[in-house]
Specification:
By secondary structure, the protein is mainly alpha-helical. The protein has a domain of 51 residues. It is 87% helix and 0% strand. The protein is rod-shaped.
């Protein structure tokens, strides 16, 4: 009862055609396609803008790890004074 078969889809499309007509449905499809394309372009712009930030953060983390390691090695080299 909860599954859609091919006949259900055809019946749904036929009802849409009766209510809206083919030209209206074509316009809806075009605008939906443009919206999806615009969304994808926006997401790719965000990815390209975020990549330099991610690379800089990665370099910062590497520099921080190197400084921590240097500090630890310097502390182990210094003799302890009692």
């Amino acid at each position: 009862m909860g599954e859609f078969s091919f006949t259900h889809i055809l019946l749904f499309v036929a009802i849409l055609m009766l209510f809206f007509g083919s030209s209206k449905i074509e316009g809806i499809g075009k605008s939906l396609g443009r919206s999806i394309r615009g969304f994808k372009e926006g997401m790719s712009e965000i990815d390209t803008e975020a990549k330099p930030v991610a690379d800089a953060r990665k370099e910062l983390n590497q520099d921080s790890a190197q400084k921590t390691q240097q500090t630890q090695t310097e502390q182990t080299k210094e003799p302890r004074r009692s």
